[in-house]
Each structure stands twice: as C-alpha cells, then as structure tokens.
Amino acid sequence: APAPTIPHGPASDLRRSATLFAMAWDWTAPADEPLHNEPSMIPKILHQTWKTDQIPIRFQAYIESWKRHHPDWTMMFWNDRQLLEFVARHYPDFLPTFCNYESGVLRADAGR
C-alpha cells in the first residue's frame, strides 16, 4: 500500500507525529475518529519559570505567544522563590537535593 500523504507545516505537526506513531505500531483509528482529535489525558497547563517576577522584555513576546496560541490552557508562572517554597511544602525530603543543584536552571527543570 502507498504511504499516506501528510501535509507539512506547523499546524500538521501533531497529526504527522500521531500518524507516524500509528504507522510504526501498525495501528489505525476508526474512520470517524481522526488521530488529532483524540482527547488528551494530559492537562492543558503550561508551567513557565524565571528567576524573578520581572521577565525581560526580550522574552515577553514568547509568553504572549503561548497565551495567544493556547487560550484554553492554564498558564502557571513560577519564580525561584515560589519553586523553593513549593518543594519545601510538598516535597520536603527532596529539598536538600533541590537546594544543592549547582545552577538555577537545574532547579527550574526539577520544578517543571
């Protein structure tokens, strides 16, 4: 059978990924249930971090772009202090490890 034609461009990335995944596992969706319309079990929450509450102007356009492209998502912003407080409150056993990371970006990654 010929390979399916998959359109190119940002809007089709999710469909292309889902189609390639389905092809790799020899799985097909019923004709009335397109792969790209499946409900997600992953909550639509975007966690963003920065050192302080003062985001540099050069990064603000990225934040606004996420909001514009995903208006139904919950946007969560965390600064370094909020991440530290969150870990201390909810994961106290992890706090020494969190505090001993050599750089702030490692703590941001752990927080996300």
Structural summary, described in words:
This protein has 112 residues and is mainly α. Helix content is 45%, strand content 11%. The chain has helices at 13-24, 57-69, 80-90, 95-100, 104-111, and strands at 45-50, 74-79. A two-stranded parallel sheet has the order 1-2. Helix 3 (80-90) crosses helix 5 (104-111). The radius of gyration is 20 Å and the shape is flat. The model has no long low-confidence stretch (mean pLDDT 79).
Beta-strand portion reads 5-15%
Order of strands side by side in the largest beta sheet? 1-2
User: What is the H/E order?
Assistant: HEHEHHH
Helix coverage percent of residues?
40-55%
